[in-house]
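hey m, so remember when u said the tokens were messed up on ur end? i reran from scratch. heres the input so u can diff it against urs
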Amino acid sequence: MEHTAYLGDGEKKFALKPEMIMELERKTGSGIAALYQRFARQNFYFSDILETVRLGLIGGGLAPMSAQQLVDTYVKPFPVIANYPLAFDILDVAWSGAPEAPAIPQDENGQAAATGDLAAAINETLKDAGI
């Protein structure tokens, strides 16, 4: 399974295929289950994030040198919390195999509800209920 997300200069594909999982285990010194648990408990190392993103990029088809350059430029310099969701999403797709949900076309109210506009969210709910 692949995960697609924006990193640096555009959308990138990330995949932790079996050979990348084995390398991730070697680089982090943890089995995939222990690493997944660390991420879920937010008890991870910064290097876990760096390696997960780097190896995910390689598994997604990027050359190793290009993957390292993206990590050095767009992951390392930023706060840990900025890249934690990306790393956890990459790991979660490898762990669960869950495909990403397809985008659902939304009308104007649906778009407003997605942005956190409470009134629009209520209107959308009422509309869906036929009220």
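this time it looks ok to me. The chain has a mean pLDDT of 86. if urs says something different then somethings off w ur setup not the seq
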